[in-house]
Task: structure prediction
Amino acid sequence: MIHTVSSSDSKKRLDLYVSEIEKKYTRSYIKTLIEQGKIKVNGKIVKAGYSIKAEDQVQIDDIEQKVVESVSENIPLDIIYEDDDIIIINKPKGMVVHPANGNYTGTLVNALLYSHIGKLSSINGVIRPGIVHRIDKDTTGILVVAKNDNAHKKLSDQFKVHSIKREYIALVKGIIKEDSIIINKPIGRSDKDRKKMSTKSKKTRNAITHINVLERFYISNVTLVKATLETGRTHQIRVHMTSIAHPLVGDEVYSKNADNFKVKGQMLHAMTLGFIHPTTGKYVEFSSPLTGDFSNLIDTLRKKEK
Result:
């Protein structure tokens, strides 16, 4: 479907304009559609903040007309810490953080709506109540959820200025010779595949990852590393490690060659999260040890080295 922009709508943001047309969709979901190239202006992919002009042709591809609603589900959560403002959750592998196209149930939000109905921030609306940040479906580990709007805003502000401490553990292919590396490569959405991110995109944003080698497994030709985020771009660690020829073990998106470890999904774990508490003003830090197939794989690799 193509809409011609009227003079009265000129200078509006693209995402706002489309949200006024497609009232069934939230603005955040429309932004996702724009990023995926499903909404174009004059046949070209533009950003959600693009300022439309009179006579612009806004093309909205045929997409599933489904209202995304978050429903409560009785799904157990591993809650590490909770107070009146925040919930610290240890997310398991395979769980999507919030409902989106293709994943309407079984998400972290669905679980939170069962256990914390009416006790989550409203800033991100009914689809993402309480969600301040995300980690990928197959990434395990620490996540903070806001229980009120004040906590949400203060946490979001810290994420924006990158003052949050975020440390991950990753198992990557190949032996990294250096003990530490700083990867400073801007990241943007891939020009060839809108579902992927890339360091070679035309439009990128600053991205810095600090890598420290924890263990080298020479027999299996893999390296265990700690990755500390200075910025927080989508798929940052996965993209950065691939860019230096050390993709994550199990990464089916960014690793071209299959591995022999029989694991599903990237070996990436959000180990540590530290920030200023939104109410007390004091620094707090939470950590989660490796578990599941990641932990089992490390045990297997260590046995091989003996």
Observations:
- The radius of gyration is 21 Å.
- Residues 292-305 form the longest helix (14 residues).
- The chain has a mean pLDDT of 90.
- The helical segments are 14-21, 27-35, 108-115, 149-160, 236-243, 292-305.
